[in-house]
């Protein structure tokens, strides 16, 4: 059940990132770093960004749960799987218009 939530979240994130429809700041950091650091894949950059945000939040007094840590390691790889699929679909849609 919990894995399904990560997959649904990742599919939505991949769609927003692929469509250039106003990516959120947390996602945008990973997208920009991936564009600048060509030798690293999105999933690796996203995991590092999420871990940085988790550690920073913890040091500032926030709580860290198992779901937060699981999301840090699962979301990036799943988004990387769905981004090319969404990009192809979006290109087909705009080609038909």
Properties at a glance:
mainly alpha; 4 helices; globular
Question: Any overview of this molecule?
Answer:
It is a single chain. The model has no long low-confidence stretch (mean pLDDT 92). The protein has 4 helices and no strands. It is mostly helical and 97 residues long. Helix content is 81%, strand content 0%.
Strand and helix map with partners:
Elements: H1 2-19, H2 25-36, H3 42-59, H4 66-96
Helix pairs in contact: 1-4, 2-3, 3-4
Summarize the entry for a quick read.
This protein has 97 residues and is mainly α. Helix content is 81%, strand content 0%.
Shape: globular
Bin the helical content: over 70%
What is the tally of helical segments? 4
Oligomer: single chain
Distance from N terminus to C terminus (CA atoms, Å) equals 38 Å
Give me the secondary-structure category: mainly alpha
Share of residues in strands: under 5%
Radius of gyration: 14 Å
Succession of helices and strands: HHHH
Average pLDDT works out at 92
Largest sheet: none
**Care to count the β-strands?**
0
Detail the poorly predicted runs.
none
